[in-house]
């Protein structure tokens, strides 16, 4: 706009000056000729009149020149100011149309351009807000990179991941003595995937393990007019799905393993009986005894699987009544006393002497006996001869509420720290080689059943262990049951 204004004003002034000069020149020539010829005797007065006339003519032409200049330049200045306002983002700025000439047409065209521009900007802002709303509402993380790996845009989840992964990289670089990672650049875990996408210009779908998390990653190239300008990454936290998938595979593998051993023994000893390999009644009785024990083992495994499936489905059958745990603990202690003598493991019981100290308002005595049985069975399997197992029960307080605390402490081999968080998962065995080699190995379901039963009673179960010094399992049961998510027996 300034260049147009300068051009118009310059041409206007040049035209005016040229016209004035021509007029004055013509008038001067004619007047001088006339003065010399007709007014030679009074030339001074004529010349003075001529000078006055020239001055008046010059002033008049100058006045009209300024008038025309203002008439033309004022609308142009308004157009310039309106253009400046639009440049600063005031897209609704308009100029007044004061004439129907070329300047008026220019003003109307400018207003039409402003309307179109305002509408286009509104549409773009709407689409931008719509896209931003979609990105914000996505549970997946979305991060967009340019061709050099710099972050262009990301939704809140993507921002969090970029910061967390960038912090991990920065911490690792600092520990290694390197320079901290450059901010707003592609996180290190995504670097190789990004480079593959940029180099091969194709979609890459993969899984990344970052710390203790597992992420599903889809990275696609971005194009503008057929030219690669970056990539967009969509990330989803699949840690829980990955863990469940691993549990499912472990479940199938462990069930197959646990069933294969008794089935093989049943098949082998049954074939021995059918082929009359046993030469005496005593040998046949021994073979039958092995078949019977293995069938019991399979029965226990199947029953444990059924119980665990009902517990995890929330359909655990409970017979909740007022229960005194003191006779229950004493009964379980007597039941394991014979095994204690057989394995040369001392079994000690520590219970209060006050009557009713271990009474619960609502509990299933049979299920709690199953809890103690599983815990003691687990303790005896992992405690060598000459060591001791202690069962304690006492009244306690849990978060201000009355509770009963039961502990089963052994002096066994202990549980490695890395296995301790997973011991209550089904089929999980901390010492897989030893337990599977042992003839008394468990199914790996005992502790999972313990946790489900305790949870159904509104209690908690935990474990602490030290390698070479043993393990202590602690069960805390509320005296006053607030709610029991169980199904009553009919």
Compact summary:
The protein is α+β, with helices and mostly antiparallel strands and 490 residues long.
Structure explained in plain terms:
This protein is of the alpha+beta class and 490 residues long. The protein has four domains: 2-118, no CATH class; 138-237, Beta-Lactamase, CATH 3.30.450; 242-312, Helix Hairpins; 319-488, Histidine kinase-like ATPase, C-terminal domain (Heat Shock Protein 90). It contains eleven helices and 14 strands. It has helices spanning 2-38, 43-87, 102-137, 156-175, 188-200, 239-274, 281-312, 325-343, 365-381, 432-437, 446-456; strands spanning 141-146, 151-154, 204-210, 213-224, 227-237, 317-318, 321-324, 346-350, 359-363, 388-398, 401-410, 460-466, 470-478, 487-488. The strands form four sheets. A five-stranded antiparallel beta sheet has the order 2-1-5-4-3, sandwiched between helices. A five-stranded mixed beta sheet has the order 8-10-11-13-12. A hairpin with a 2-residue loop joins strand 10 and strand 11. Helix 2 packs parallel to helix 3 and helix 7 crosses helix 11. It starts with a helix and ends with a strand. Residues 169-183, 433-440 and 486-490 have low confidence and may be disordered.
Please tell me how large the radius of gyration is: 48 Å
CATH topology of the largest domain: Heat Shock Protein 90
- SSE string, helix = H, strand = E? HHHEEHHEEEHHEEHEEHEEHHEEE
Largest sheet: 5 strands, antiparallel
CATH class division of the largest domain: Alpha Beta
């Amino acid at each position: 706009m300034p260049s147009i204004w300068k051009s118009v004003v310059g041409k206007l002034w040049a035209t005016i000056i040229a016209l004035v000069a021509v007029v004055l020149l013509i008038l001067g020539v004619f007047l001088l000729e006339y003065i010399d010829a007709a007014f030679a005797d009074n030339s001074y007065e004529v010349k003075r009149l001529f000078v006055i006339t020239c001055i008046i003519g010059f002033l008049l032409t100058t006045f009209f020149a300024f008038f025309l200049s203002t008439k033309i330049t004022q609308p142009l200045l308004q157009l310039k100011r309106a253009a400046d306002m639009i440049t600063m983002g005031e897209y609704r700025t308009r100029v007044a149309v004061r004439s129907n000439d070329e300047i008026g047409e220019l003003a109307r065209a400018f207003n039409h351009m402003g309307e179109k521009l305002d509408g286009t900007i509104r549409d773009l802002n709407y689409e931008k807000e719509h896209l931003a709303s979609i990105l914000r509402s996505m549970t997946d993380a979305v991060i967009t990179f340019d061709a050099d790996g710099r972050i262009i845009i990301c939704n809140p989840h993507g921002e969090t991941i970029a910061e967390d992964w960038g912090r991990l990289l920065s911490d690792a670089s600092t520990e290694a003595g390197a320079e901290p990672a450059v901010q707003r650049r592609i996180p290190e875990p995504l670097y190789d995937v990004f480079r593959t996408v940029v180099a091969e210009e194709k979609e890459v779908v993969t899984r990344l393990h970052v710390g203790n998390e597992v992420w599903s990653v889809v990275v696609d190239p971005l194009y503008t007019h057929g030219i690669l300008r970056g990539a967009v990454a969509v990330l989803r936290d699949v840690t829980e799905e990955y863990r469940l998938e691993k549990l499912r595979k472990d479940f199938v593998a462990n069930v197959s393993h646990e069933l294969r051993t008794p089935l093989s023994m049943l098949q082998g000893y049954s074939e021995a009986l059918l082929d009359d390999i046993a030469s005496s009644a005593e040998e046949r009785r021994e073979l039958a005894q092995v078949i019977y024990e293995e069938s019991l083992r399979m029965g226990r495994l199947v029953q444990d699987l059924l119980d665990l499936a009902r517990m995890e489905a929330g359909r655990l059958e409970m017979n909740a009544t007022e229960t005194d745990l003191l006779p229950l603990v004493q009964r379980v202690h007597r039941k394991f006393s014979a095994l204690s003598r057989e394995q040369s493991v001392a079994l000690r019981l520590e219970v209060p002497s006050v009557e009713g100290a271990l009474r619960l308002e609502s509990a299933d005595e049979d299920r709690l006996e199953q809890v103690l049985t599983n815990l003691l069975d687990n303790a005896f399997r992992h405690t060598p001869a000459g060591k001791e197992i202690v069962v304690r029960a006492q009244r306690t307080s849990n978060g201000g509420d009355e509770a009963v605390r039961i502990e089963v402490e052994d002096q066994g081999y202990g549980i490695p720290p890395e296995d301790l968080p997973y011991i209550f998962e089904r089929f999980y065995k901390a010492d897989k080689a030893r337990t599977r080699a042992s003839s008394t190995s468990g199914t790996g379901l005992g502790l999972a059943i313990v946790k489900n039963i305790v949870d159904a009673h509104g209690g908690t179960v935990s474990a602490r262990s030290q390698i070479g010094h043993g393990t202590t399992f602690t069960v805390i049961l509320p005296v006053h049951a607030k709610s029991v998510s169980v199904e009553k027996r009919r």
